[in-house]
Amino acid sequence: NLLQAGSSLEFYARIGRFLNDFDPTIYAARAEAIAAEIESQQADIVGLQEAGQLRTKRPGETDDEAPAFDFLTRIVSALEDRDLSYRVAADTVTTDIELSGELSDGEVTLDIADRDALLVREGVAVTETVADTFDETITVKIPANSGDVTLHRGYCTANIRVGGVDLTVSTTQLESTAMEPRRRQAEELLTILPSDRPVILCGDFNSGPRAETETYGLLTETLNDPYAALRPDANGSTCCQAADLQNDDSQLDRRIDGTLYRGDLHPTAVGRVGHREDDRFTIQSDGETARLWPSDHAGVVATFDVSGQT
Q1: pTM
Q2: CA dihedral in degrees (267, 268, 273, 279; nearest 10)?
Q3: How many of the other CB atoms lie within 10 Å of CB of 295?
């Protein structure tokens, strides 16, 4: 993590390593693998977290001139290549920061914009959307910078109509570095979700039955977990593979991602994608062959029956 460097020297070293190791080919292949997961499940709604954009700028370059990689756009494009029509119903930029670093050939600025998004399949009616960030934030000091960086988390919601039934779907990522801000963000989210219709909440909660449980416990006071109803003894771990995604054996040992619900909804299935060895893909990078997981998290897939329609 760039923001957890203990000194200016370590901070600049991490920036350099990140930029030297960044390979757009790998991220594009990951987008293809995630699109394949979505296709395999024929999902109507897809909640994404950390579907961000990265841009590197040299002195004198404008934003339009600087090379950028947009993970959300690549996923939508990969779906289109599979003749699948999804639109971005709502997305919110959470933390957007600029970090300066040094490479062997000079200075560079790294602009990282984190983002959550809801994708909606063609044919699903969307009547209203909301995209915002939480009031609760966390501040991190950068050793190489005289100031601090404020880390934001956010959420997206969309009101949809399925089979004549109105419901709200939402996606979020809660704070990963500290429990109290994470819990307060969950409290805020619970006040935002409507009480007059069914709700489905998907996200990276950084809390769960096999991890830090306080925030998960707060959410499940009013929301239900399909695993509890359908697969109470299932492992269901979703986090986390190695940072470079190249570990041979799965390292998933915590269930911190989920799909929760309340109201007149009936879960019929729940499971994971991207967690089996066969889900890894092969890619050529820098003249070497590598096998990677699509993400450091497994995806969670839940199916619901809404008034007789699935």
Answers
A1: 0.90
A2: 180
A3: 22
